[in-house]
Records
---
Amino acid sequence: MFNKRIKVRELLTREPYHEEVTVMGWVRSFRNNQFIALNDGSTNSNLQIVAELGRFDDALLKRITISASLKVTGTIIPSLGKGQKMELKADTITILGDSDAERYPLQPKKHSLEFLREIAHLRFRTNTFGAVFRVRHSLAFAIHRFFNEKGFVYLHTPVITASDAEGAGEMFRVTTLPPLNPPLTKEGAVDYKEDFFGRATNLTVSGQLEGELGATALGEIYTFGPTFRAENSNTPRHLAEFWMIEPEMAFCDLEDNMNLAEEFIKYIIRYAMEHNREDLAFLAQRLADEEKQLPQEKRSELGLLEKLDFVLRNDFERVTYTQAIDILLQSPAYKKKKFQYEVKWGIDMQSEHERYLVEKHFKKPVIVTDYPQEIKAFYMRRNDDGKTVAAMDILAPGIGEIVGGSQREERLDMLLQRMEEMHVPAEELWWYLDTRRFGTVPHAGFGLGFERMVQFVTGMSNIRDTIAFPRTPGSAEF
Ligand code: ATP
Ligand code: MN
C-alpha cells in the first residue's frame, strides 16, 4: 500500500510525538553509515532518517546510495542534532530502487545551470529545480484561481491553426506531406490542398484571435496554453515553445486592461509568496550567492524577496511610448552614447532601452502605452492622433517585456483599412471580422508569457531554467 506514506512537507508541520509513519523518497546523502537525508519532492527540506548502528544488515546499508529510492517505516522523534526539529528512527528500510552511485551524474556539490540543462531529466532532483517547479506550479494554480474568482471562462484555443495571429514570429509548419517529393501545384509550389487539413497549417503563436471570438459572447475569457515561435532568438528570454496566458474582455478599454494586468500580476506573486515561502527563500539565497560573483555595479539593489515585496507594495509606473522615448533621449546613457541601438520616435525599443527605463530610470515595473501603429499588430485600436495605437506593454526589472496587450480595433471600417495597409488577408480572417459585423463591442486583452513570469518570481536569469524541457534553436532533447 503506497498511499499510506506521508509526505515530508506534511510531516514537518507536525510535532514529533513518537508517531509511527512511513515515508518514501530518494536519498540525497548518507553519512556515517547512519544518517540518511531523504527527499520526496514535496519540500526542499530533507527528512533525516536515523539507521541505528548494528540494527541493519551491511548488505542493505551498502545499497543506500545517492538517489536510491527508499521506503522507510519508523518513529518520529525530536532531533538531537541541530538543523532539524525531528528525525525518523527507522524500524524497516526497503530499497525500492537501487542507484549506481558511480554513474549518477548529480553529486552533492554545486553544479552549473548549464550542466544541469544537459541532464534536464534529472535536474528536478536538485534543490534549485525542486523549488523552481513548485513555484511554477503555484503560479499556474494562482492564475486559474484569479480568473475563476473574477468569473472568466477558461477557453481552450486550438494549437494547430491556419492563421498567423500576429505575423508575430516565424511559425512551425504542421504537415503530413512527405518531405521528399510532396505533391505540387501547377506552379510548382507544395500543394497544401493535398495536406491533412486540406490547407497549410501551423502551430499557434497566440490564441488571441480565437480568444476574441469567445470574449465577444462569453464576456470575459482567458487562455492558458502552449504557443510556438520559430524565431531564431538565442536570448535568455526566448523559447520556441512557451506558455502564454491571454485574457480577453468585452466592454473593456486600455485603462481597464492595464488595471487588470497589474492586479493579476500582483495576485499571483502574492499567492506564491504566501504558499512557497521556503522555496522562495531558498531561491533568494541562491540568487544572492550567484550575484556575489558579479562586480558590485551589476548586482541587484534588492534581494529577490525584497524585490517581490516592493512590486506588491507599489503602483506600476505608466508612461506613453512618446514619453518613454523622451526619457531615453534625455538620459545620461544616451548622451554618453551607451546605447548600441538608435533612439528616436518610431523605433521598436530594444531590450537595452526597456531595461534602462525599468532598472535605471523608474526602478519598478513600467507600463508603456500608445505605441506607433507601424510597429504593432493590425488589430490594435487606432488612437485619435492617427499615429499611435492603444497598446500596452509591461516591462519588468531584469526581464524586459513580460506582457503585451491592447484595446482591439472594434470598428470594422478602420480594421479593414489597417489590414489592407498591412497586407493581412481579410478573406482568410472572415470569421474574425464577423465579430465586428454582428454586435461589435469595445474590447481588450493581453498576453503574459508564463516562463518570463516564472523567471521574475524565481530570479532564474535564463528562461531555459523555468520550463522542464526547454525548446530552443538546435535543442529538443528529452
Ligand atoms: P519580445 O519582443 O520579447 O520578443 P513579443 O513582442 O514578441 O516579445 P508578444 O507577441 O506580445 O511578445 O507576446 C506576448 C508575451 O509573450 C510577451 O510579452 C512575452 O512575455 C511572451 N513571449 C513572447 N515571445 C516569447 C518567447 N519566444 N519565449 C517566451 N516568452 C515569449
Ligand atoms: Mn518576439
---
Amino acid sequence: MTLPQHVRLVEVGPRDGLQNEKQPISVEDKVRLVDDLSAAGLAYIEVGSFVSPKWVPQMAGSAEVFTRIQRRPGVTYAALTPNMKGFEAALAAGVREVAVFAAASERFSQKNINCSIADSLARFVPLLDAAKARGVRVRGYISCVLGCPYEGEVPAAQVAAVARELYAMGCYEISLGDTIGTGTAGATRQLFEVVGRDIPRDRLAGHFHDTYGQALANVYAGLLEGISVFDSSVAGLGGCPYAKGATGNVATEDVLYLLQGLGIETGIDLDRLVAAGQRICNVLDKPNGSRVARARLSRG
Ligand code: HMG
Ligand code: MG
C-alpha cells in the first residue's frame, strides 16, 4: 500500500481542545491561539462552536472569536453547528464553513445533542440545504465510531449507515471520531475498510482521541488505508464534555512529526506549532500533551 503524498490536518484545538476547559479563557487568548496556528501553516482551523451555552459554556464566545481572528488567505476557519439556530448564528459571525455532528451510538447521541440519531440527521437536512444555498461547505462528524462510553462496542456497519446518510445529504467529508480513544490500529483499518465501501476514501477523515495512547498508531493505520485527512489538536488539548474521562485529540505536533518522517507534505512549521501549543498550555497552566513538543522544548 502506498501512503498518501499529501495530508491535510484539521486543527481542532481551539474547539475540541478548549470546549471542555472549566476555567474561563479570554477571547484574546482564543484569538491568539487561532492566529498562532494559522501563522504556523495550519490551513484548516476549527475555531469554535455555535451550540447551547448551557451545554458547553466555554464555547459561548465563539462569535466574538470569529470576528477578531486575523483571516489569512487560503485558511479555512470552521465552526460546529448542531441545528439551524447555530447555523444562522455562525453565518452572522462570518463563518463560511461549518460542521454537523452525529453519533454512531444512540445513547451518546442523546447525551451529546439531546436527540436520537435519526432526529439529528433529520435536523441536519434543512441546515445542509440552507448551507448549499449560501455556498457554505459542511463537514460531517460521527462520534463513537470505535466504542461508546455508554454502549461499549459499536459495529462498523452502524457507523457506515450514519456515514452514508451524512454523505447523501451533502456533507463533503465525513470525519470518523474515536471519541473515547479505545480504538486500536486493527479496528481502525477495519472501520475505514467497511465505511470506505460506500464512501470514497478521499472523503473520509480520522479523528482520534488519545485516551488509550493509540491515536498516533490509528493515524498510521488510517494512512495505510489511504486516508489523507486527520483531525488533531495542538498540544493534545481537549476532551468531550459528554464522554467522561476522554482526553484530548492526538497532538498536532506528534502527527506532524510522524508525517515528516514519512516524507508526507503538509506545509506546517513544526517549531512555530510547538511554540503555539506551549503558549496556550502556559495560559491554561497545564502540561503540554504533545510528546514531540515536550522533547523539543526540553532541548532548550
Ligand atoms: P436542546 O436543549 O434539546 O435544544 O439542546 P432545544 O432546541 O430544545 O433548545 C433549548 C434551548 O437551547 C433554547 O434556549 C434554545 O434557544 C437553545 P432557552 O429557550 O432554553 O433559553 N439553543 C441554542 N442556543 C445556542 N446555540 C444553539 C442552540 N440550539 C438551541 N445552536 C442542542 C440541543 C444540540 C442545542 C444541545 O444539546 C447542545 O448544544 N449540545 C452541545 C453538544 C456539544 O457541543 N458537544 C461537544 C461537541 S461534539 C464533540 O466534541 C465530538 C467531536 O469532537 C467528534 C468526536 O470526538 O467524537 C465532534
Ligand atoms: Mg472530538
---
Amino acid sequence: MTADVIDGKAFAADVRARVAEQVTRLKADHGITPGLAVVLVGEDPASQVYVRSKGKQTIEAGMASFEHKLPADTPEGELLELVEALNKDPQVHGILVQLPLPDHVDADKVINAIAPAKDVDGFHVSNVGLLGTGQKAMVPCTPLGSLMLLRDRLGSLSGLNAVVIGRSNIVGKPMAQLLLQDSCTVTVAHSRTRDLADVVRRADIVVAAVGRPEMVKGEWIKPGATVIDVGINRVPAPDKGEGKTRLVGDCDYASCAEVAGAITPVPGGVGPMTIACLLANTLTACCRANGLEAPQDLTA
Ligand code: GUN
C-alpha cells in the first residue's frame, strides 16, 4: 500500500481564505478589525521563524498584527505587565505568548495571566478545563488543525482506536481530549510506555507528537491507518552538502507511507494548519468580544 498524502498546506490555505473573507465582512459590516498580539521573549531561532510567519499570515488575512519582541533577560514582572496591558487593549482580540519562555520565567503564571477570552492558544487553565468538560473553549491550534485533517479524511471518527504519542500540554493532552470528544477510544503513549510498537499497531489513528525525529516506524503501523505527524525536527542532511539540514517528522515517512492509508508530510502537513487555526481562533475571539456570532464552520 502507498498512503494518500494529506495536503495540510492546501487545506490551511483554504481555511485562511475563509478567515480572510470573514474579516473583510467584519470590517465592512461592523468597522471591526481583529487584532492578534504575539509576544516573543529571547532569540530562539525556531520561535523567531514561527513568530515571523504568524505576523505575515495575520496581515495577509486582513487582521492587525502586534509584535512584542523582548530580550531574553526580561523580568517576569515586566512580561506580566505587558500581558495585563494587552488584556485591556480593545484593539487586541487574541494574545499569544510564544513558548518556550526563558527558565527564569514561570510560563504557567504568564499563560494564566492572559484573559481567557483572548487566549487564542487555548493554554489558560480555564480553557483547558472547558475543553476537558466538553464546553465551549478556545482550542489549542495544532490539535485543532490535526482534528480538522482527520475529520476531512475519515468523516466520523466514532469508535476508532486512536493513539496519541506524546503528552505535552500544547499537543498531546488536548489532542487526546478532542479525539475523545469525537468518540474515539484514546490511548496516550509517552516515553515510559511499554511495547509502544504494539500499542501503535492497534491504532486506526496515530498522532505522533514526541519531538523525536523519525521515531515511529512503518512496521508499527496498522495497514490502512491514518497517520498525523506533528513533529518538526531539523536534522543534518550531509547528502545536501556540508552543514546542510532538512526537516523531518516524528514518523519515518518512507516506511510509514508504505503501510498507512493516509499520512501527513513534513513539511506541508500539520504545520500550516497551526497558524490557520490561530487566525480562526483570533477571528472567533474578536466576534465574541463584540457580541457577534462566531463563524462555526471555519474549524468544524
Ligand atoms: N511553541 C510551539 N508551539 C506553540 C504554540 O502552538 N503556541 C505557543 N504559544 N508557543 C508554541
